[in-house]
Specification:
8 strands, 264 residues, 41% helix, Trna Endonuclease, Chain: A, domain 1, 5-stranded mixed β-sheet, 3-stranded antiparallel β-sheet, alpha/beta, 3 domains, globular
């Protein structure tokens, strides 16, 4: 049932309808049916209703995600969300960028990983910090960076509705760590929606820093061509050796081709 819920609602609905049509087309032979046939039909009937139930749950989840994303009009609206809505918002934001998103629930045995992203040849772990006032400290960033190797991920992403301490920003420099604060998140969501940037609330308000292109993307640099075979390269993270934790460009045809370019 858990696997069926992860599928698109329309797919499980079609599957359920297909099983229903099959059972309608081939009615059971009450007199000559053996035990094996009875069990098989019962299993199909159970699967049919599981598909219909999964389609209903998946459709509700899809509507909830879309409503949550639509309600994120500005930073105030984002900060007014519950922590669960905030996590749903981040997951939906990544889905709309073409990533496959696994929602882990976070805060449990996984050590605080809320989302796992896969796409563009990379894997990233994400932690969502719905803190309205408190700044995200360096301890959180260090812990997530430590989980990167354990999860065999290429990048760490932390998204907060608040801000980060200077120590956190300093620690993230030069590492495959992306820190997203609340204002940058709100601006990027507006870009995804195709809405114009919000005007400053006062004439004296400082100009907002420009949002980098693909600020929530796992890979933000243009991939170079492999110097060995000419294929596109993928940004990877060294997991051992003297450069452990550092990044380099590796050939997308690895292990057939082992061409690399160091990230300067």
């Amino acid at each position: 049932m858990e696997l069926l819920v992860l599928l698109p609602w329309w797919l499980t609905l079609i599957a359920g309808a297909g099983i229903w049509l099959y059972l309608r087309s081939y009615p059971a032979q009450s007199a000559g049916a053996d035990m094996q046939e009875i069990i098989a039909r019962f299993a199909l009937l159970a699967l049919q209703w599981m598909c219909f139930a999964a389609a209903f749950v998946s459709a509700i989840a899809t509507i909830t995600r879309r409503l949550t994303f639509a309600s994120a009009k500005d930073i105030e609206a984002i900060r007014a969300m519950s922590w669960r809505e905030f996590e749903t918002l981040i997951a939906e934001t990544y889905r709309r960028q073409g990533f496959t998103v696994e929602e882990t629930g976070g805060g449990g045995a996984d050590g605080g990983v809320d989302l796992i992203l896969r796409g563009k040849g990379q894997k990233a772990i994400v932690q969502c910090k719905h803190w309205r006032q408190k700044q995200v400290g360096v301890k959180v960033v260090r812990e997530m960076f430590g989980l990167m190797t354990h999860e065999k991920a290429d990048r760490v992403v932390i998204v907060s509705s608040g801000t980060y301490t200077q120590e956190s920003l300093d620690f993230a420099k030069g590492k495959p760590i992306l820190l997203i604060d609340g204002k940058a998140l709100a601006r990027h969501i507006r870009e995804i929606k195709g809405e114009p940037a919000a005007a400053p609330t006062a004439a004296t308000a400082p100009a907002a820093k420009p949002v980098p292109q693909q600020v929530l993307s796992v890979q933000t640099q243009t991939a170079p061509a492999c110097p060995t075979c000419g294929s596109a390269m993928v940004l990877r993270t060294a997991r051992k050796g003297a450069n452990a934790g550092g990044q380099f460009w590796g050939c997308s045809r690895y292990p057939e081709c082992r061409g690399i370019i160091n990230v300067t």
